[in-house]
């Protein structure tokens, strides 16, 4: 659901997309968001030691994206760590199955005030029948 709106005083158009509320305050522990939470694109919570975030499977991602899914279609997932910081408070993205792979760093954290952000973005791109690559873009 994209819509355009004229930028105040600039004459340019801005494009907006309707965004569901963030899946926030994921409990401390290993994260296994539902496919709906994952493709919503915003996940946040606190970890107090090394934890994992497991993606949905490739088939789950493809099904959730719907019948119009084409090779090259993509969505972003933004992950934010909130709460207290500790040297071992690290979240590692893992694949739900062999049809989800990664390019780039899959770890996030620890949060270190002023030096290391507790957030990252991955772009998940469809590469074929039920196959996805997650690219670390920020």
Structure described in brief:
The protein has 138 residues and is mainly β. It has helices spanning 35-40, 58-65; strands at 2-6, 13-17, 23-26, 42-45, 51-54, 74-81, 91-94, 100-103, 107-108, 119-128, 131-136.
What would your notes on this structure say?
By secondary structure, the protein is mostly beta strands. The protein contains two helices and eleven strands, in the order βββαββαββββββ. The strands form three sheets. A six-stranded mixed beta sheet has the order 3-4-6-10-11-8. Strands 5-7-9 form a three-stranded mixed beta sheet, with no helix packed on it. The longest helix has 8 residues. The radius of gyration is 16 Å and the shape is elongated.
Question: In terms of topology, how is this protein built?
Answer:
Blueprint: E1 2-6, E2 13-17, E3 23-26, H1 35-40, E4 42-45, E5 51-54, H2 58-65, E6 74-81, E7 91-94, E8 100-103, E9 107-108, E10 119-128, E11 131-136
Parallel strand pairs: 3-4, 4-6, 5-7, 8-11
Antiparallel strand pairs: 1-2, 6-10, 7-9, 10-11
Compressed to H and E, one letter per element, the order equals: EEEHEEHEEEEEE
- Count of alpha and pi helical runs: 2
Query: Residue-averaged pLDDT, rounded?
Result: 82
Radius of gyration: 16 Å
How is the biggest beta sheet arranged?
6 strands, mixed
Query: Which structural class should the secondary elements be placed in?
Result: mainly beta
Describe the strand arrangement of the main beta sheet, using strand numbers: 3-4-6-10-11-8
* Number of extended strands: 11
Shape: elongated
Q: Note the beta-strand portion.
A: 35-45%
What is the terminal-to-terminal distance? 24 Å
**How helical, in percent, are the residues?**
10-25%
Low-confidence stretches: 1-7
């Amino acid at each position: 659901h994209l819509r355009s709106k004229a930028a105040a005083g600039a004459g340019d158009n801005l494009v907006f997309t309707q965004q569901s509320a963030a899946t926030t305050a994921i409990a401390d522990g290993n994260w296994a968001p539902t496919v709906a939470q994952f493709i919503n694109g915003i996940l946040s919570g606190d970890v107090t030691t090394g934890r994992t975030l497991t993606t949905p499977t490739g088939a789950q991602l493809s099904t959730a994206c719907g019948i119009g899914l084409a090779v090259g279609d993509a969505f972003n997932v933004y992950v934010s760590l909130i709460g207290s910081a500790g040297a071992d408070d690290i979240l590692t993205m893992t694949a739900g199955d062999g049809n989800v792979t990664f390019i780039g760093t899959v770890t996030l954290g620890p949060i270190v005030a002023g030096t290391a952000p507790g957030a990252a973005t991955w772009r998940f791109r469809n590469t074929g029948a039920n196959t996805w690559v997650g690219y670390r873009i920020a």
